[in-house]
Amino acid sequence: MKKTILSFLTLLSFTAFSQSLSINPEEFYFAETGDQCVAHFDVTNNSDADLNVIVTRSFPQEYLIVDSIMTTFCWGLTCYPPTVNVSGVPILISAGESFDGFSGYINDMPENRTFRINYCFSVDGDPTDKVCTDVDFTSESIVGVEETNVSFGVYPNPANDVLHLEYTAQQAADFVLYDMLGNKIYSDVVLNSKSIQLNAFEAGIYFYTFSVNGKNQEVQKLIITH
Questions:
Q1: CATH 2.60.40.10 residue ranges in the chain?
Q2: What is the C-alpha separation between 162 and 155, in angstroms, rounded?
Q3: What is the CATH class of 15-138?
């Protein structure tokens, strides 16, 4: 079933590529009214040297003052509050490698609204070597986008040494595992069923999400035993 459009401006995100870094954002990220909207994508070091990378963001201040939204972002294990627009902790990305530790958030999406936030990823100490993109967070209905009905399985639960992810679809899904404090400790892009070795994880209670096109499914609990 296709979603009907209420009002929607062009959602073409402009992405500029630097010599050293590149990114792969989606055209937009959707969440239902009242849900958290999440943008998640990789940052790739295209150079032949290891680079320390920081994130900066910018957006109209009326988003905070008039619209009263709460927008945050995470770079690696550090998450920054709405008042902080520059990551204080650089992340080392090895030469030729990609890093999947960026996420941008808007909590409690208002009804039928789109917010555009600009994110720039730059080499620490060289602000001219950067890549930037406008990211659109939306709760508006969109013509031509199919409803996302995600079917997946995670078993066994409780899990011991191996966790099996059962998922097959035309669109890739993001699987993210969190600890009890809400820290992201594992993430992967899933297109086919796969298995995850759990030897490196301590026994305890965890939480996970699947998301497709930036739309999170319900958070689920996972118990790991050894």
A1: 152-224
A2: 9
A3: mainly beta
List of residues 6+ apart from 52 with CB closer than 8 A = 90, 91, 92, 93, 123, 124, 125
Does the domain made of 152-224 have the CATH classification 2.60.40.10? yes
From first to last of the 226 residues of the chain, give the pLDDT tens digit: 333 333 333 333 333 445 799 998 888 888 888 888 989 899 999 999 999 999 999 999 889 888 899 999 999 889 998 899 999 899 999 999 999 889 999 999 998 899 999 999 999 999 899 999 999 999 987 544 444 455 678 888 889 999 998 877 767 888 999 888 888 899 998 888 889 999 999 999 998 888 877 666 667 889 999 8
Look at the pTM and tell me if it is higher than 0.90.
no
Please give the full DSSP string across 147-177, using - where no structure is assigned. -----EEEE-SSBSSEEEEEE--SS-EEEEE
State the residue for tokens 């849900």: 35
Where are the extended beta strands (E) located within the chain?
15-16, 21-23, 29-30, 37-45, 51-58, 70-75, 78-80, 91-93, 98-107, 114-123, 126-138, 152-155, 162-167, 173-178, 184-190, 194-197, 204-212, 215-216, 220-224
Q: Could you give the residue ranges of the DSSP H alpha helices within 78-139?
A: none
